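Let us practice reading a record.
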Amino acid sequence: MIRIMMLSAVLLAVFCYAADQLAAKEYLPPLAGAYEPAAMKQYWLVLLKRGTNRTQDSAAAAKIQEAHMRNINSMAQRGALVMAGPIGPDDDLRGIFIIDAPDSATVSQMVQQDSAVITGRLRMEIYPWWTEKGVYTFK
């Protein structure tokens, strides 16, 4: 629940920031030529989707979820996990991670250690995601 509230707060802050910029007519320049890699910070967006093996009984599913949460907390303690949380309603997309790592292979290795991915309850999709340095500080 706390992670959902954190994600909601970040999204609200982003929308408020954008609204303030538009109201002040200080919006970003057109995209053509505006992308400056040196001014950007890359993160990794991991989409956690419903896996192909969701046949576990409730006791087994609860153990998988406990181990899933331990993996999330471990990634956060190592400083790699910026944000995580479930997605609703109950459909194919189940949750997201935003991870600070040097490359997608590192991200894949971290997420493949997750019990929900190992057991097939979840599958992952990894995408690079950038934000302007210093604008959205997560750590």
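A brief commentary: The chain has four helices and four strands.
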